[in-house]
Amino acid sequence: MSAKTVDKIATGVIILFAGIIVLIMVGLLGFILVRGLGHISFDFLTSPPETIREGGGIGPQLFNSLFLLVLTLIITVPLGLGAGIYMSQYAKPGRVTDSIRLIVEVLSSFPSIVVGLFGLLVFVNTFGFGFSLFSGALALTVFNLPLMVRITEQGLASVPLAQKEASLALGLSKWKTIRSVMLPIALPVILTGTILAAGRVFGEAAALLFTAGMSSPRLDFTDWNPFSPMSPLNPFRPAETLAVHIWKVNSEGLAPDAPEIAAGASAVLILTVLLFNLLARFVGRQLQKKFTASR
Amino acid sequence: MARSNDSRRVKQHIIEEWIGKILTSLCIVLLVVTIFSMVYFVATKGLSSFFKNGVSLAEMLGGTSWKPEGEPPMFGALPFIFGSFATSMLAALISAPLSICGALFMVEIMPKLGKKVLQPAIELLAGIPSVVYGFVGLSVIVPFYRNIFPGQGLGILAGASVLSVMILPTMTSIATDALRALPSGLKEGSYALGATRWQTLSRTVIPTTLPALMTGVVLGMARAFGEALAVQMVIGNAPHIPNSLFQSTSTLTSVITLSMGNTVMGTIQNNVLWTLALILLLMTFVFVFVVRWLERRAIR
Amino acid sequence: MRNIVMSTKDLNVFYGEKHAVKSLSLDFATKEVTALIGPSGCGKSTFLRSLNRMNDLIADARITGEIRIGDEDINHPKTDVVLLRQKIGMVWQRPNPFHKSIYENIAFGPRYHGIRDKRKLDEIVESSLRKAALWEETKDRLNRSALSLSGGQQQRLCIARSIAVSPDIILMDEPASALDPVSSAKVEELIAELKQEYCIVIVTHNMQQAARVSDYTAFFLMGEMVEYGATDQIFTNPEDKRTHDYISGRFG
Fold first, then answer.
1. ipTM confidence
2. Is C114 within 8 Å of B9 when comparing Cβ atoms?
3. What residues of A are in contact with residue B265 (Cβ under 8 Å)?
4. Contact at 8 Å (CB) between A21 and B102?
5. Which one of B15, B28, B171 would you mutate to disrupt binding with A, by most A Cβ within 10 Å of its Cβ?
6. Cα-Cα-Cα-Cα dihedral of B96, B102, B105, B106, to 10°?
7. Between 3.40.50.2300, 1.10.238.10, 3.40.640.10, 1.10.3720.10, what CATH number should domain B74-299 receive?
8. Could A171 and C86 be called an inter-chain contact, meaning their C-beta atoms sit closer than 8 Å?
9. What is the pLDDT of residues C116-158, one digit of tens each?
10. pTM (2 decimals)?
11. Domain C4-247: homologous superfamily in CATH
């Protein structure tokens, strides 16, 4: 066979494989949407699930997922920013910094189920937070923190050195320089990354099975006192999230319409994650524009 | 001049500097403490089944019979270890050619179309939660295998198929970065000698980027190894080494997922699950070090 | 009588293994412009950056010798870098205004240094912009983004920004080389104006510019100072042959 023929065949194979990837994506998305969209209704999104009868909804789960996401971000963002700032601005190159970097890398590759087990042992049992939104948020923080650190580092690395120098040369302290000059410029990168990370948190289930729990108390959506046990806002109540619900319905669901519920919930989950991705792109572009358009 | 005047202001900005340093250091200390306590807790729990409950290490790693409630209880975890390795390796094997071809397509063949179609497709795949992969696996892949192969359709191949799609984004993006980082002179030299594109790719581009491509494969495998729910949903969960790719079996993560809620803290049945978690943890270290080793080779 | 505000003695700067500035001793006086000239990589920018300890940002930079301001060695470990830099303004080759409004660019420094009074800040903003010959062009749009200004305006804004914290010394690293000829001429005019009040050290590639704006000139070559003297003398009658060659354009 001539070199030219081989070249043509190889190119064909590469294009074919690339096509397969696209097909997988289209098939996956198409399947979930076709199966799930029909099941999504206002009722489905707001009513509580049923255990053995059909017609159950995902209202509390959807609320739990969103609430848990907010809680997680409240804890993760400041910690991640702090640790990221330290790594990119204060850490002196050398052995200690290298080992911290290694540690962050190791933490980021821990399986999420192990993070969940750690949460069970420490947050749920040792600290006594029980199966609760708060334990779940802490577990997700552990799971998400390395990513947040990396995002912060990337954001700060995207700040031109000239900006940092200009501020320092004016006689501003390093901390003030970081806060008032560098962070605003790094914001588009950090915000975009955070939203994408939020999508990841939203879909995470393994770390939550043994921390936020697999059940949800009957919520009273008229009671917004965060200290009452039935209140949706109480962070110390167990909370099954949407992703956990999908898993549970699939593996031990007794309702006759379990596959439909799983499909509907999957579609909701996917659409939310898609929304996060679009939002990240949009926010990133808007902020970028705000900073550069007037040039 | 800079040292002496106006001592009140001196204090203020020096205090501010310290506040910044202390706040950020606290965050990083918290992170480091978290990881060490994670290793510590999982290790003490995991080792207690050997030291407190007297399970033998040989039985754990070599035994093929898992009967925690049996009389006497048996704790042979080999089926799970085998299941984890088999699914993750097979997943990496399926995903590697796909992802490398995808990366070649995006960098070398049709960058424009790649950026417009393939890149978003891969980003989308990366965003899909693992339970959704599990759900799709359960409702599409498992019935498909059930129809054309003997058996239930559940098993290693179903797990590997689901995982291979899950790890595709990781592997593709690393391969893409590696190919993009290649100095263009290298390719031009080959083309100048009259080589075709495939000759250039197979003789120059792929060999030079091989360590980086391998990094992607190992990272993908690591992710597959640690994935719990998606695998648990399609693997079947029978505690034995299967005879075929389509026979129900288990992985380390699937056993932990299923049994952790049904055992009581501190009992031997619970402790052995922590031992399995410890094995997962140790494998993570192995993967991280392999990746580091490959990265060092890639730099050279 | 020259009023020396800053002097270096036997100053060496190393970047890792590289000996970038070799045993340099120079005096800088107030109301004078000193030009540092020489081919790329001769160490003139490195020297300039060591004067306000900007080289602290470079991990493997090492400095020996003395830089004195008044009776103080600025490389002393006890020196407060923040206060030091407040006394030394800096202007870069590329304009680097903060991504803030024109007003904020100027007010940012003084506010940090303790001036909270809005009226006082307004005054500083106006006077700094006036000194930088930018007031007339910007007084109606102080709240617009600094990035909306042209390159030349941005550079003058950066000069105004450094003046706003009332420094004694202004360091300029090729301040006009990234600008068009008209803007470049304006910056030169500005330097001549600012000379009335400040000690200015300017690094430049442009020989004519050095001849036009400076009172003293130092010629650098491969980390060493080959010749130093009054600008007239350096440009009309250099003592060293290498200076002569460089000025007449034989290399560099």
1. 0.89
2. yes
3. 125
4. yes
5. B28
6. -120
7. 1.10.3720.10
8. yes
9. 899 999 999 999 999 888 898 998 999 998 988 998 899 999 9
10. 0.87
11. P-loop containing nucleotide triphosphate hydrolases (3.40.50.300)
